[in-house]
Amino acid sequence: MKKNKLNKYFFIGPHLILFIVFIVVPTVYGIYISFTNWNLISKPVWVGLDNFRTILFDQNSTFYFQLRNGLKNTLYFVLITVPFQILIPLIIAVIMSNKDIKFKGLFQSILYLPGLISVSASALIWLLVVNPRLGLQNVFGSTTVWTVSEKHAWMLIAFMSLWGAIGGNLVIYRSAINAVPQDLYEAADLDGASRVRKFISITLPSIRFPLVYTIVMSTAAAFNVYAQPLMTTNGGPEEKTTVLMMYIRRLAFGTGESIAGMASAMALILGLVILIISSLQFILFYSSSKGVEVK
Amino acid sequence: MKRKTVNILTYIFLISICLIWMFPMIYGLTTSFKSQTDIMSVGFKLLPVNWILDNYVKVITNTSSAPILKWFLNSMVISISHSFLVIIIVSLASYGYTRMEFRGRDILFYIILGISMFPGVVNLIPSYKIVQKLGWINTPLSVIVPGLAGVGNVFLVRQFMMDIPRVYDESARIDGASDFFIYFKIILPLVRPVLIVVGLFSFIGSWNDFLWPSIVINDVSKLPITAGLQLLQDIYGNYVMIGQLMASAVIAMIPTTLLFIFAQKYFMESLNIGAGIK
């Protein structure tokens, strides 16, 4: 019995210690310091709800502007990327389910590969693709400088993000669609169902779990956006593409004295937004999919 | 529509989207072989006039402001050690959560899983403080270790271990085998495929990590390559020395791309696995 007890720590111990040191402690501490004034060096000073009051209600404060602007831009990024991150791979997966098509593995690999490239490398490449002198737009005689116009800056960020983001979801959808029992489709064929009808009544309900999974994961990941705008537009023009993570990073680890307490308060708000939206997505999708049980 | 027409349209669609998806990488690659005069000319040209290696020579021989080979080696050390440690720690923990009998085992696991769902952005700043307290700032440990705490991989491997019939270990136990023997000789070989997948994704995640290394490493010579690329736009003339920027980007993409080409099978299986469980 004694031996077994030691053994238990031998197996789960290393992970448990790491988990406590690098997840439990910093999470609890992160919540705590959002109620303090802290410069990362001296002892945090408890200020109660002051940080939140400032960033949420004090209209004269730069922090108020930063939270609003950062959250707004982050939300905007989520809205312009996540729907496409789901729809584009879903459409491709459905099209690829056509049995006569060959080279599916090759197509899939090509679409998947950009997801394995770091954002910093792909940003360098995308800045070339939209370069005013050498970019693809020259073919069409356009000399737009993408990083200085708000609309184009967002397009660049969105294209680049989608480029790397569809491959993973595509693989998931394809395997989910392949697992749908064929007799469901054959039965529908006998009833003379159209392609669209089959997609809505058979495919969608059958793949709802992977679908919800990818929606929740893609959304949560998109809320953490940081590197794409940093590397391409550096938040410009005029902070129009500065996302919340960039402000958090700057306040806590920028030049000058760290304002880690305020940054933590912003991080906590972002964390709560992610948590609430993920939970809502789960509840919404699961309750709505209960009705469409597939045999 | 006739079946044949549908097929042709499908091919046209798939081939065009693949061409679009390949284009940025190919253009980046060909541009890395262009001379600076070639790059200074106006207009879109896919291929270089002369294929030259100058850009690569220049970025590799720049060992002061952007020591890219050093960065590359740093990344190799970091990503390889990280993925090996992930495999060891995750497989040990999964064995513990499936094979060791103790009170509250499953509850403990679900508590850990639940806590890990809390968005990671909140622990970013304190994690820095912890790493600093440990004296790890500007060392590879700062980027190798904290990521080992994740629970997702334990969840995945645990699912696989639960599916291994108990008969395997019971019979070994009757023969007097220790837990470590069962773990190492019986369970590990059976979950090898999923551990390879976990290792591959850990390598790639570690190689491509950007925000965290840029916080805990500020000594230029200690940077991993992904974070190092951030400095290049300024170093290579505010996006003027494009050939050298592209050569650097290409160097940074080589390992993950090669890994994908040689281990494609595992990548594709893995995602099926992940989707199947969740």
Would you give an account of this structure?
The complex is a heterodimer of chains A (295) and B (278). Chain A contains 12 helices and 2 strands, in the order αββααααααααααα. Chain A has 295 residues and is an all-alpha fold. By secondary structure, chain B is mostly helical. Chain B is 72% helix and 0% strand. Chain B has helices spanning 3-31, 36-40, 54-61, 68-99, 105-116, 124-133, 141-144, 152-162, 166-174, 179-190, 192-208, 211-216, 225-235, 242-262, 264-277. The longest helix of chain B is centred in the N-terminal third of the chain and has 32 residues, at 68-99. The two termini of chain B are 37 Å apart. The mean pLDDT of chain B is 91. At the A-B interface, helix 1, helix 3, helix 4, helix 5 and helix 6 of A face helix 1, helix 4, helix 5, helix 6 and helix 10 of B.
Low-confidence stretches of chain B: none
Secondary structure: number of strands of chain A: 2
Cα distance spanning the termini of chain A? 48 Å
Backbone CA Rg of chain A:
24 Å
How large is the radius of gyration of chain B? 24 Å
Strand content of chain A: under 5%
Please indicate the count of domains of chain B. 1
Topology pattern of chain B, helix = H, strand = E: HHHHHHHHHHHHHHH
Name the poorly predicted regions of chain A: none
Structural class by SSE content of chain B: mainly alpha
The main β sheet of chain B shows up as: none
Overall body shape of chain A:
globular
What general form of chain B does the structure show? globular
Average pLDDT number of chain B: 91
